[in-house]
Each structure stands twice: as C-alpha cells, then as structure tokens.
Amino acid sequence: MTYDVVVIGAGAAGLMCAMTAGYAGRRVLVVDHANKAGKKILMSGGGRCNFTNLASGPANFYSDNPAFCISALKRYRPEHFVEMVDRHGVEYVEKAPGQLFCAESSKEILRVLMTECDWAGVTVRLKMSIERVERAGEGMRLATSAGCIDAGAVVVACGGLSIPTMGASGFGHDLARQFGLGVTDTRAALVPFTLSSHWKARAEALAGVSLEVAVTCRGRCYREPMLFTHRGLSGPAMLQISSVWQPGDFLSIDLLPGLDAFEALASARRETPRRRLSTWLAEHLPKRLAQALVEWHGDDGVLAECSNERLAAWASRLDDWRVKPAGTEGWRTAEVTMGGVDTRALSSKTFEVTGLPQLRFIGEVLDVTGELGGHNFQWAWASGVACGLDL
Ligand code: FDA
User: Fold this and answer.
1) Atom of ligand 1 nearest to the CA of 363
2) Which residue ranges does the record assign to the RsdA/BaiN/AoA(So)-like insert domain (predicted)?
3) What are phi and psi of 133, to 5 degrees?
4) Separation of CA 159 and ligand 1 centre (Å)
5) Ligand 1: residues within 6 Å at CB?
6) Quick one: pLDDT at residue 1?
7) Ligand 1 midpoint to CA 165 (Å)
8) How far apart are CA 37 and CA 213, in angstroms?
9) Which of 7, 44, 63, 362 to mutate to test the pocket of ligand 1 (most atoms within 8 A of CB)?
10) Tens digits of residue pLDDT in 21-76
11) Are 246 and 209 in contact (CB under 8 A)?
12) CA pair distance 32, 49, nearest whole angstrom
C-alpha cells in the first residue's frame, strides 16, 4: 500500500489534517489503534464538546517555546471552524463568554469531521497498530498489524497521555525520541486536586458545594467556580490552576473574589453590630461552607464583640485560604498533557521536523497546552490545517 500521507491518530488534529490534505488532492490514510475515531471528542465538554473559544489566541497556551503556536492560530481562527460547523447545520451554544459547545451532543462534531474526511477522499483504518516507523528512500515506511505501508509523509497526531482507557499512549513521544527530537517533561493538566488527611475529610463533607473563587499559584490567577469533591477540589478554577501547580505548592484561594473581606467585615460590624459572624458568612458563601468554616476555626459570636485582630484572622482565611494539595487525580481524569514533543525542532508553519519534512507532529502530542475552555481543540484544528495545507 502506498499513500502520499499517513496520519497516525484519528482524533481531532489527525482528522482535520487528513481532510485538509485530502482536499488538496493527496491520497491520505488515517490509522488508529482504537476501535472508534475521535473518542476524546465524544467525551469532551461533558458530552457536548466545547469545540472552540472565540477569543482563543497564543496567550491561552503553555509551552516552553511560546511563540511556536502563533502562526497556526493566526491562520486558522475559531471563526473558520464555526463556519464549517454552520455549514453542517450543527447547533451550538455559548455557555460562557467565547466558549462554544454543541447544543445536542459531541457526536455532531465527529460527524462533521468524518463527513469532511469522506468528501475529501480520506481512508480511515481503525484497530490497526503501528509497530515501526522508519525512513525508506525519499519517504517513510510503516510496519503495521496489517502489513507494510509506504508514505510520502507521516503525520503523528496521537495526542497526549491522559485517559489511557480511551486509547491515549506515549507512542508519539517515543517516535519523536526515535528520530532524535526532545520531549519536554510531561504531567497531567486540567485535572482535579486530591487532598490528604483532615483536608480530605473536610472536602468530603462539603462534596457538591460550588462557589466562584480566585485561585493563585506560581503567579497565575484564575477566577472561576471551584467544586468540593469526595477526593478534594475540582471545578474550572482548580482545573485551570493545575496546569501551573507543582507538587509541594500551596494554592492561595480567595473565597470572596472582588471583595476586601476585612473592609466588608468591619463595615458590617459598624452597621449591624448584633449580627453573628456565622450569619454574615452564610450571606456571602454557600451555607454549608460557611457553617464548616465556623466549625473548623471554632470562632463565632456577634460582630460587635470581634476585635480587629479576629476580623483580620477571618479576612485572611477568606481572602487567602491556603491549601496544599496532596496531588492530582493524574492521567485517569486529566483533560490534557502538559509538555510533549519539543517544538524547537519543528517548523511552526508546516509542522515538519527540521531536516526531515517527511515527518510531522501536530495537536496535543506537542508541547503546546491550552487553557480550559475550547483552546485545546482550537489548537488541534489550527495545527491540523497548517500541516495539511503543506503536505
Ligand atoms: P486525540 O487524543 O484527540 O487523538 C489522538 C488519537 O491517536 C486517538 O484517536 C488515539 O486512539 C490515537 N492513538 C494514540 N496512540 C496511538 C497509537 N500508538 N497508534 C495509533 N493510534 C494512536 N478540549 C477542548 O478544547 N474542549 C473540551 O471540551 C475538552 N474536553 C475534554 C474532556 C476530556 C474528558 C478530555 C480527556 C479532554 C478534553 N479536551 C477538551 C482536550 C481535547 O480532547 C484534546 O486536547 C484533543 O482531543 C487533542 O487532539 P489530538 O488530535 O491531538 O489528540
């Protein structure tokens, strides 16, 4: 079998790249070891795929080589993907500013990609494992479970390491190493935190309580909802900050973002001196959390009896609640992989390996990781198109 292009990975980036190259007249084969294409698309966004973010730009991405993503993101913008989705009649909603989700189901996005691949003449082969990839003359040769395949170029689009049960593997990273490329340190990101000892018990007792917080770690701050879980802390604020958190770091959580807790407590003491601290807390926080805080700190009473020192102690608990996570839930539940194939050995225009244009890497396998909110798919689409146009 001979193809102009073999794409390894029938996920978001691989399918996007394949259809782009197919429309350009290339004979394209997409191979995947999974029994279904686009499994992560299907499970994304709680089953409704947050397929892009209208405000997506380079500032929404982490990488050791931050300028790498600029070119592709500039050339294929969120509006371009929305235009394709519109053409296929997919209904969507803007759940949070800029974040577009399918109104019905993630299946719609996979349907769009598979239909476009079909129209572009792309062949998709599932349940095929790749044993070896090597150079062969001017092109590349793949040894697979279905025999040898020759290709003018191989595009590695096998994604990151999260959720191994969905087909994730380190194959792309291993392939990069085989061809002499670097792979930056990888870790689970956009992932809930676990807590230990008494903090775990406290979170467990509050499981299901959610509130908007501003969380800070390593100079990054995210203001989004936080959710207490049976294992620890989750919700968008925690997923976002997990991308910068390192083991041993404390999180600083402002439970009353936008409010100076000391000023607010002092003015409540002036205006309503007979009000109890617990009543004030319950007016500003979810009731279960307010109650728990009073129990944890064994401090309640009428505001009039609170000294400035007591108010300052409460203000620091509310504005700067310090929590040291035990860890994260890891690859089992992480949405993405931080780190990956070092982009310094690739062209940011074509995604080819410097000195070996027959080999390319796109999507999440690269050391380009988006924030929560549709940015990771936007990167998959943009890198897939940039590469596909050059094949
Ligand atoms: P992707 O993982 O999509 O595809 C890789 C493909 O390669 C898979 O089909 C896999 O089977 C295949 N493969 C792996 N190893 C192979 C091997 N050895 N041989 C052959 N094939 C192999 N992002 C976002 O923007 N909005 C969202 O709503 C969400 N939601 C979300 C929820 C959950 C639960 C997860 C886990 C992730 C998200 N994401 C997200 C992240 C998003 O899913 C992710 O960034 C993209 O799918 C990455 O696209 P890729 O094509 O690079 O990899």
Assistant:
1) 52
2) 187-336
3) -130, 130
4) 5
5) 8-14, 32-34, 39-40, 43-45, 49-50, 130, 157-159, 162-163, 167, 169, 171, 335-336, 363-365, 374-377, 380
6) 83
7) 12
8) 37
9) 44
10) 999 999 999 999 999 999 999 999 999 999 999 999 999 999 999 999 999 999 99
11) no
12) 21
The residues, any chain, with a CB within 8 Å of residue 127's CB and separated by 6 or more, are 32, 33, 34, 35
Structure tokens at 237: 């604020």
DSSP lists the bridge partners of residue 304 as none
- Calculate the average pLDDT of the chain: 97
User: Residue 140's beta-bridge partner residues?
Assistant: 135, 151
Q: What is the chain's length?
A: 391
The letter for the amino acid at 197 is S
Tell which one of 335, 366, 367, 383 to mutate to probe ligand 1, the residue whose CB is within 8 A of the most ligand atoms: 335
Q: Report residue 123 as tokens.
A: 């062949």
* pLDDT tens digits, 80-100: 999 999 999 999 999 999 999
Separation between Cα atoms, residue 3 and residue 11, nearest integer Å: 19
Contact status, residue 337 vs residue 171, Cβ threshold 8 Å: no
- Residue 70's contacts (CB-CB under 8 Å, 6 or more residues apart) are 58, 348
**Structure-block tokens of residue 68:** 């790498």
Pocket test for ligand 1, best of 158, 174, 243, 338 (most atoms within 8 A of CB): 158
The ipTM (two decimal places) reads: 0.99
User: What integer pLDDT is reported at residue 166 of this predicted model?
Assistant: 83
Residue ranges of the alpha helices (H) in the chain?
12-23, 39-43, 70-75, 78-87, 107-119, 171-178, 197-205, 236-242, 261-271, 277-284, 287-297, 308-319, 375-390
